[in-house]
Structure formats: C-alpha cells, structure tokens
Amino acid sequence: MEPQDPSVQYSRWDEVSVGAASSPEEAPCCDRLSRKLCSGRLGVTMRMLGGVALFWVIFILGYVAGYLVHKCK
C-alpha cells in the first residue's frame, strides 16, 4: 500500500510529518523539549531521578497508611 502523496512521511511511531515541517528546527517546542529530556545521558538521568522520586512517594504513602491502619486506639 503506497501513500498517494510523496510529501507525507510515516514513521514507525505513527507520527505523520508533512512536507518541510518534518525538520527538527521547525518542530514544536514541547516536541524538542521532550526529545532532549527523554534521550541521551540527560534522559537516563531524568528517568533515574523520576524512579527514585516515585519510590519515595510510594514508600511514604505506604508508611503513613500502615501507621493509620495499625495505630493503637
């Protein structure tokens, strides 16, 4: 199945780029920011810090819930 318009490009992540808008310089600000924060060393660091923060949030919520369930009356 061939695309009818040769200026339309489909990537494997189901994003559609039309014509000259596919260049990285013309990408929307949030797309450029997400590419920068989610790839390379900075992306690995951000995911690691996010995982550690999520761990502590779940740990504190579990501690508080356990305290409230098991506290003496």
Q: How would you explain this protein's 3D organization?
A:
With 73 residues, this protein is mostly helical. It has one domain (8-70). It is 55% helix and 8% strand. It is built from 2 helices and 2 strands; from the N terminus they run ββαα. It has a two-stranded antiparallel sheet. The protein is elongated, with a radius of gyration of 22 Å.
Topology (SSEs and partners):
Blueprint: E1 8-10, E2 16-18, H1 29-37, H2 40-70
InterPro entries: SMIM1
Protein name: Small integral membrane protein 1
Organism: Myotis davidii (David's myotis)
Instruction: Determine the fraction of residues in helical runs and give it as a percent range.
Output: 40-55%
Please give the order of strands in the largest beta sheet: 1-2
Mean pLDDT: 78
Amino- and carboxy-terminal Cα gap: 70 Å
What percentage of amino acids are in beta strands?
5-15%
Main beta sheet strand tally, sense and closure: 2 strands, antiparallel
Secondary-structure element pattern, one letter each: EEHH
Q: Could you say which overall geometry the principal axes of the C-alpha atoms support?
A: elongated
- Give the domain tally: 1
How large, in whole angstroms, is the Cα Rg? 22 Å
Q: How many strands in all? A: 2
Structural class: mainly alpha
InterPro entries: SMIM1
Pfam family, one: DUF4731
Keywords: Membrane, Transmembrane, Transmembrane helix
Protein name: Small integral membrane protein 1
